[in-house]
Amino acid sequence: MQAFLTIAVRAARKAGDYIVREADKIRSVQSKSSNDFVTNVDEAAEKLIIDTIAQAYPDHSFLGEESGHSGSGEYRWIIDPIDGTTNYIRKVPHWCISIACTYRGRSEVAVIYDPIREELFTAVKGRGAQLNDKRIRVSQTNGLEHSLLATGFPFRHPQKLAEYNRIFNQLFPHCADMRRGGSAALDLAYVAAGRFDGFWEFGLNEWDIAAGTLLVTEAGGIVSDFSGNPNYQNSNSLLAANPKAFKSMLKLIN
Ligand code: IPD
Ligand code: CA
Ligand code: CA
Ligand code: CA
After folding, report:
1. Residue 78: strand, helix, or coil
2. Is there a catalytic annotation at residue 42?
3. What is the reported pTM?
4. What pLDDT sits at residue 144?
5. Ligand nearest the Cα atom of residue 81
6. Which CATH topology does 148-253 take?
């Protein structure tokens, strides 16, 4: 797995350099569906990542946000070339590259790279999580009173707004404050690093969370859907937090 991590880091750094270089030269912005934008840079960065990994592992398969499925190997790389495309387009310097290698549906290796802050979050299943090679752990915040939570608004799921508001109204009075940064992968990496105590969002895709969820669990956190079911992959909701905050959040949500 260490060799997989080395390749994933190489691919993420290459893509990071490229995406930063292109920030003032975006040639096309297209809308895939309501409020889901893709630029020529997202597409080229995804190709760069897949080409780099496929060169080392030609029999692996891929799921990229912009290019979909390719190949059929049991090792499957899940790639979000820019998580936070709206931020990237609007020059808000908060986005990242997310790469995970999965085996039979489970994440084994995770890389989340923020090239602007030069922060590289990595994890290998069973071996803990790191930020720039230093071990990270979820926060120890006891209960929610002093906790800083992160969320994503249901901006692509208007039918979820009422349910979102209900949960927000349950959680907000009990926590210290709430953040909406615009990159679910960074939200998860920050939970792993103990910067946020918990994170919750509706309607995320595999590429948004495949790396971040492994970071959280390897840092000692818990991940589930809003019912507490660890099979969050099949659900439309995601909750990730340190074990104490997780318990309190789950109770309030339900
Ligand atoms: C989005 C970001 C955002 C989250 C959305 C994601 P994208 O990813 O992670 O924070 O709220 O649900 O789709 O489209 O910028 O890769
Ligand atoms: Ca997108
Ligand atoms: Ca994403
Ligand atoms: Ca993306």
Report:
1. strand
2. no
3. 0.98
4. 94
5. 4
6. D-Maltodextrin-Binding Protein; domain 2 (3.40.190)
CB atoms under 10 Å from CB of 116, counted, come to 13
Please tell me the predicted confidence (pLDDT) of residue 90.
97
- Residue 92's CB is within 10 A of a number of other CB atoms, namely 13
∠ CA 11-22-36, nearest 5°, is: 85
By the 8 A CB rule, do 93 and 116 touch?
yes
Q: Which residues neighbour 127 within 8 Å (Cβ) at sequence distance 6 or greater?
A: 1, 218
Q: Is 14 helix (H, G, I), strand (E, B) or coil?
A: helix
Which token pair is 206?
């595999």
Cβ pair 119, 231 in contact under 8 A: no
* Cα distances (Å, whole numbers) of residue 29 to 44, 209, 214: 13, 24, 31
Cβ neighbour number for residue 39 with a 10 Å cutoff: 21
Q: What percent of the chain has pLDDT over 90?
A: 93
Q: Is CATH 3.30.540.10 what the domain over 2-136 is classified as, yes or no? A: yes
Question: Which of 43, 46, 80, 114 is flagged as catalytic?
Answer: 80
Backbone Cα Rg of the chain:
17
Q: Is the CB of 36 under 6 A from ligand 1?
A: yes
pLDDT digits (tens, 9 = 90+) for 78-109: 999 999 999 999 999 999 999 999 999 999 99
- Could you tell me the residue ranges of all domains in the chain? 2-136, 148-253
Q: Which ligand has the shortest distance to the CA of 204? A: 1
Q: Which ipTM was obtained for this model?
A: 0.98
The dihedrals phi and psi of 28, each to the nearest 5 degrees, come to -145, 140
Regarding the beta carbon of 64 and ligand 1, being less than 6 Å apart is answered: no
Q: Is 85 annotated in the active site? A: yes
What's the 182 CA to ligand 1 centre distance in angstroms? 6
- 62: helix, coil or strand? strand
